[in-house]
Design a protein that fits this description.
The complex is a heterodimer. Chain A is an alpha+beta fold. In chain A, about 25% of the residues lie in helices and about 35% in strands. Chain A has 2 domains: about 160 residues, Cyclic Phosphodiesterase, Chain: A (Alpha-Beta Complex); about 100 residues, 3-Layer(bab) Sandwich (Archease, Possible Chaperone, Chain: A, domain 1), CATH 3.55.10. Chain A has 5 helices and 14 strands. In chain A, a hairpin with a 5-residue loop joins strand 10 and strand 11. Chain A is globular. Chain B is α+β, with helices and mostly antiparallel strands. In chain B, a hairpin with a 6-residue loop joins strand 4 and strand 5. The radius of gyration of chain B is 21 Å and the shape is globular. Classes of the chains: A alpha+beta, B alpha+beta.
């Protein structure tokens, strides 16, 4: 029997800081959000089960941000982690995580369901100094658009054995003079959030200027709202972007809006 | 490549197609045309040719690259009565420009320690980088009222310069027609702390030596000597101008002025409409903010020279200050008839030749200085305008980017860019390592090739080649 230490998780991309406080750091290529932990199981059994893997109903990946530093488990922390808040679709991901758990149970895998799903990314394992990690924390954007079956191979390394890709909320593109992204979303509100997250990847302090209420019904309003955000940040703390241009190359395919966002820098 | 037809050295016509009202005119050498992806900027040249009231050609300079609506390195003149004015034809950084000053010193006479001390003294006085402005309450509403209408004269009256400086600025450092009431509260808030700061991106302060003279007589008339220390400053209207552009784009798009245009970013209002006049009044205010910004930066540099080298402001004369993102009313000959035109220059510099009535006596004799920064590693150039009517007396504004920011960042990832530049004999100070990586010399076209094309096309002539040694980036 081929026993492997497995878990299902979301690969995470973020504009990680170049330096972290002291600790046994997990390399950026191995950072993830765990959706379901399985422990040591028979890999062949899992391979068979994967044929009926519950493909999510959503096509798009998730955007969000790290909002606080956690030390887990709370009583005797062994890891320092950053908690994730998803910009929208929090409930959609929670529902999907429950679906995964149900599917694992149906396939006779023992899953620990004592704890509520707590979306977080573990950054380091003990020993570490909580105070240093707390002090170093600053909100940071992230995106997650690939579900993996990971194997824990030791030394804080995780290898993907299988994956299912979703569409990325945004991809950076080449542009001679400026910055450019392809932004994807299912609604204009989401288009704003994904575009704002893309901007925050280049300038994380902009996260504080994302409005809590977003009312946009077309691309023009999305662009105007993004520029209000850039303008507010520039007035208060300075901002590396001059403006998001009124470049309106946009298409809609299978319910997914795709917009080429160009930022004058 | 598009169907370009060569009509003169380094001069190509892009024929009219579809709804283009005028043909395009591309100034470039064969080499420059083959070195970069030219199709997207050419599409923008064609798009600009659709604008109502455009006369002559939709022009592109040898440093052309893809911009916002208009290409960067684009020039378009509109009939002053029946044409349109377009915020996209000016750009976000209204009156982004360059100014050149000199010192009565040979750069080689200054030792390395003093050079480093000088650079640090400037760095301390002139804020650079994202969000770095001056501390304190900043500009009051009363200050704004004056500086936006008086232009650089306001700064000089406040002690940030000498009266003679005004004679060495395009339009004497003031665009007429500015109205502070046409500027939003948000724009004023964005600019309040930013006067006298460089900003980020491609803005800089550069000190170096005049390496070679091409036209010694003109150089001498302007007070330039081989080996002499020069100071080059590149900045614009900062957040103030960005917001003015944004406010007016929003208003014009909402008012439906983008309908029928091939690209919404070309949105333009008739010059004589309320919206067109409003934009011009706000744009002129932003242009005057920028003149003041560069004046304050020069003041900071002069203060540093006083501290480190004991030189007074009169010892560091301003040679010239040019705008390269602006729309201005100028009189030109159109089909043999004098016409008032609204000339949009976006990433392009006015290049009036000898005899131009608007120039001060010195420059009326020689033609105006045209300042062309290259990159921080190779060279910059001082040219003299030839007053070529084909381009509405315009020339290039820089080297133009050859590589995207991502490409350049990837190429320099993990390398010590500051140390690399030092090994090339150039000391760089910057608030962001990322900016330095994005602005490394290989990101740009070869400025020598760009100015050679300009000279061959008879837009301007080379006066001097400058070699940078000390650089401050945002």
């Amino acid at each position: 029997m081929d026993q492997k230490r497995l878990f299902l998780g979301l690969e995470v991309n973020a504009p990680w800081p170049s330096e972290f406080p002291y600790g046994r750091l997990i390399d950026s290529a191995h950072r993830h959000v765990t959706l379901a932990f399985l422990g040591n199981i028979d890999f062949q059994k899992m391979e068979k089960a994967l044929q009926s893997f519950p493909i999510p109903s959503f096509a798009l990946g998730f955007a969000g941000y790290f909002d606080q530093c956690l030390f887990l488990p709370p009583r005797h922390p062994r890891v320092a982690a950053w908690h994730v808040t998803w910009s929208d679709r929090e409930s959609e991901l929670v529902r999907y995580q429950k679906t995964l758990i149900e599917w694992l149970k149906e396939n006779d895998f023992a899953v620990d369901t004592r704890h509520r799903f707590l979306p977080h990314v573990t950054l380091c394992r003990s020993p570490f100094k909580e105070r240093s990690w707390q002090r170093a924390f600053a909100p940071l954007p992230l995106i997650a658009h690939t579900i993996h079956l990971f194997e824990s191979v030791g030394n804080l390394k995780y290898v993907s054995l299988w994956h299912h890709s979703l569409l990325s909320p945004f991809d950076e593109k080449e542009h001679t003079a400026d910055l450019a992204f392809t932004v994807k979303a299912e609604s204009y509100k989401q288009l704003f959030m994904h575009a704002a997250t893309a901007l925050c990847f280049h300038f994380p302090p902009l996260l504080s200027y994302i409005p809590s209420e977003i009312n946009v019904v077309n691309l023009e309003e999305v662009i105007i709202s993004l520029n209000q955000m850039v303008g507010s940040a520039d007035g208060a703390i300075g901002c590396p972007f001059k403006a998001v241009s009124f470049h309106n190359k946009m298409s809609v395919e299978n319910g997914i809006i795709q917009w080429e966002m160009i930022i004058d820098v | 490549m598009s169907n370009l037809q060569k009509i003169a050295p380094c001069t190509y016509v892009l024929p009219r197609t579809g709804e283009m009202r005028v043909p395009g005119l591309i100034i470039a050498s064969d080499t420059l045309l083959s070195e970069v992806d030219i199709e997207k900027p050419l599409e923008q040249v064609r798009n600009v040719a659709h604008l109502p009231g455009i006369v002559g050609y939709s022009v592109a300079m040898p440093d052309i690259h893809w911009g916002y609506g208009f290409p960067i390195g684009g020039v378009a003149a509109m009939d002053g009565e029946t044409g349109v004015i377009s915020p996209g034809g000016v750009g976000y950084d209204i009156n982004c420009g360059v100014r050149l000053a000199t010192a009565p010193l040979m750069l080689r006479e200054i030792d390395l320690k003093t050079k480093e001390k000088l650079l640090r003294a400037i760095y301390q006085r002139v804020p650079s980088g994202v969000g770095h402005g001056h501390r304190g309450s900043g500009l009051s509403d009363g200050d704004y009222q004056k500086l936006l209408t008086q232009g650089a004269r306001w700064s000089i009256e406040k002690g940030y310069g000498i009266p003679k400086d005004l004679e060495h600025m395009e339009s004497h450092g003031c665009l007429e027609g500015a109205d502070p009431n046409a500027v939003s509260h948000e724009a004023k808030e964005r600019g309040r702390q930013q006067i006298g700061s460089i900003g980020s991106g491609n803005h800089f302060i550069e000190i170096g030596e005049i390496q070679k003279l091409f036209l010694p007589e003109i150089a001498s008339a302007w007070g330039l000597r081989e080996g002499q220390l020069y100071i080059l400053i590149h900045s614009g209207s900062r957040g103030f101008g960005h917001q003015v552009c944004q406010d007016n784009l929003n208003a014009l798009i909402k008012a439906g002025f983008s309908k029928g245009l091939p690209d919404a970013q070309l949105v333009a209002a008739p010059i004589q409409s309320l919206e067109g006049k409003h934009y011009f009044a706000a744009m002129a205010a932003a242009a005057n903010f920028a003149f003041n910004n560069r004046q304050h930066i020069l003041h900071g540099v002069r203060e540093a020279f006083r501290e480190v080298l004991g030189l007074g402001p009169e010892d560091l004369p301003l040679i010239y200050d040019v705008c390269h993102n602006i729309a201005k009313f100028e009189t030109h000959l159109v089909n043999g008839e004098k016409k008032r035109l609204c000339v949009h220059r976006k990433g392009a510099t006015r290049a009036f030749g000898p005899g131009a009535a608007e120039l001060t006596p010195l420059f009326r004799t020689t033609g105006q200085p045209v300042l062309v920064p290259g990159d921080m590693g190779r060279a910059s150039h001082i040219l003299v305008g030839s007053g070529n009517p084909l381009t509405w007396c315009s020339s290039c504004h820089g080297a133009g980017r050859a590589k995207s920011r991502i490409q350049t960042l990837k190429a320099w990832k993990g390398k010590d860019t500051i140390q690399h530049m030092r090994e090339q004999g150039i000391i760089v100070m910057a608030s962001s390592g990322r900016t330095v990586a994005e602005e490394m010399p290989d990101a740009y076209k070869d400025v020598d090739a760009v100015v050679e094309a300009v000279e061959e096309a008879n837009l301007a002539k080379r006066v001097a080649r400058l070699r940078p040694q000390l650089v401050i980036k945002g």
